[in-house]
Please model this.
Amino acid sequence: MRTYAIGDVHGYLDELERAHALIAEDRGACGDTAAPVIHIGDLCDRGPDTKGVIDFLLAGLERGEAWTTLMGNHDRIMARFLEDPSWIDPRLPVGLHWFHPRMGGEATLASYGIQIEPDERLSHLHARVRATVPEAHRAFVFGLPTSFGLGDVLFVHAGIRPGVPLEDQAEEDLVWIREPFLSSQADHGRLVVHGHTPSEVVEHHGNRLGIDTGTGFGRPLVPVVIEGREVWALTAAGRVEVRPG
Model:
């Protein structure tokens, strides 16, 4: 089974469009225009066009594209703010919040034409955001699933907790975990494809495949194609095999 996956987008519409162009080229070369595409989450924050990213994904779904989009930790924070501005993700370090420069929420609001006013109260900002962000965007982000399984592959945003059955994984781990997942050498039963932890290249560790190549920090988005447990990165020059190790 052939599946495509795209890592953390972080509001960079141009990178998302480029990734889909590479996928379309590979699909054409394979003669498989129906192969699914999995977006691994973190659609929003840091980059300049979260609104454009969500518009792009919604338009594809309306066309009937075989696309699945998962929830990342940044998407969860955005979705929860839209519902309840007082909610703070318990996995955030003390002192961090959606609008902290490290998180990038201000860039997300700016893509909708919203600037945070000096000394603005949270309740007032929330009311403006609710009035501006389209209902279709709110419903889409709030309704994102946290995992997707296909054949021998499990797609999640951050990873899984080793030793816990897949059906018992907690949402917080699926969207936030790093350790002990990243250092685990356990056979998870499926190849776990994830983002969340950036690296300069796609990394295949045998039991997991990390595909966050740091787009949120200015690096290119690198889509991958997976056939069984074989993986290739898609580049302008074609496929580049990604081997375990």
